[in-house]
Design a protein that fits this description.
Layout lengths: L6 E5 L4 E8 L8 H17 L3 E9 L14 E7 L2 E8 L3 H11 L4
Parallel strand pairs: 2-3
Antiparallel strand pairs: 1-2, 3-4, 4-5
Length: about 110
């Protein structure tokens, strides 16, 4: 289950965890202060915990309130770790599968 809001997700079976930053249509881009804070947190987690898989900034094509949330929705995801952009991918559909893949494997599909 994906809960609306930013936060952490831990995969206890795999022993790793990651952070999510959710962006929805109509949400203004983050200010430079917010981006710097996200980078600072990512750097801190990356240096202090080897089980940290990174920060995933998910730009959804719809609000999570717009159920059913499934693979008909689009999304764009940035994977940041050690303050570096590891990957950026846009999914014209498959939003639910893309997010589930991150939660299971700690990386983009």
């Amino acid at each position: 289950m994906i809960h609306e809001g930013n936060g952490s997700y831990g995969n206890t079976a795999k022993g790793d965890w990651c952070r999510f930053e959710w962006k929805y249509p109509g949400v203004t881009p983050s200010s430079s202060g917010t981006v710097n804070s996200l980078g600072d947190l990512d750097a801190l987690f990356s240096m202090s915990d080897p089980s940290y898989a990174g920060l995933f900034i998910v730009q959804l094509g719809t609000s999570l309130d717009s159920f059913p949330f499934d693979d008909t929705q689009a999304c764009s995801i940035q994977h940041i770790r050690h303050t570096e952009l590891m990957a950026l991918k846009t999914y014209p559909h498959s939003a639910q599968s893309a997010i589930a893949h991150i939660m299971q494997y700690g990386r983009l599909m």
